[in-house]
């Protein structure tokens, strides 16, 4: 059913529901967001103990179907060749259960960016 105009949102605990649209969003507190970041960072650093990770950014978002996702950007020192393909492809198997332990069920979408590539891209746009 397509809604016309403004649809009020009703807050129930941490779940907000728009009844006419059938769409809900989960509102996390700053403490919850920090716990999510801590889990993501811990798992990545454990799995990539042989790579120097410069930064990890985690942002809550929605995919094209309206499902919650976590956009994770990992900036590491070195070239893409230094990353073990087995580790990059299997990291979700380790991360998702840890996120579920803290009641986070959004699917992580992880991007790996070499710091050297990031610097080249910034230099090209300057």
What fraction strand?
25-35%
Shape: globular
How far do the termini sit from each other?
Answer: 47 Å
**Quaternary organisation:** single chain
The low-confidence parts are 1-26
Spell out the helices and strands N to C: EEEHEEHEH
Spatial ordering of strands, largest sheet: 1-2-3
Strand count = 6
**How would a crystallographer describe the biggest sheet?**
3 strands, antiparallel
How many alpha or pi helices?
3
Q: What value does the average pLDDT take?
A: 79
Mind telling me the C-alpha Rg? 18 Å
Helix percent band: 25-40%
Derived from helix and strand composition plus strand pairing, the structural class reads alpha+beta
Summarize the structure in words.
- With 126 residues, the protein is of the alpha+beta class.
- Helices cover 37% and strands 30% of the residues.
- The chain is built from 3 helices and 6 strands; from the N terminus they run βββαββαβα.
- It has helices at residues 30-47, 85-101, 115-125; strands at 10-12, 15-18, 23-26, 53-62, 68-76, 107-114.
- β4 and β5 (68-76) form a beta hairpin.
- The relative contact order is 0.15.
């Amino acid at each position: 059913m397509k809604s016309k105009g403004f649809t009020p949102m009703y807050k129930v605990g941490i779940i907000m529901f728009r009844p006419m649209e059938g769409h809900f969003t989960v509102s996390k507190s700053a403490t919850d967001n920090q716990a999510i970041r801590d889990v993501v960072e811990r798992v990545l650093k454990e799995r990539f103990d042989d790579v120097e990770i410069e930064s990890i950014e985690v942002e809550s978002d929605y995919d094209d179907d309206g499902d919650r996702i976590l956009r994770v950007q990992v900036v590491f020192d070195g070239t893409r060749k230094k990353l073990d393909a087995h580790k990059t492809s299997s990291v979700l198997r380790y991360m998702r259960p840890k996120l579920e332990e803290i009641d986070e069920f959004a699917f992580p979408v992880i991007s790996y960016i070499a710091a050297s590539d990031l610097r080249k891209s910034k230099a090209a746009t300057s």
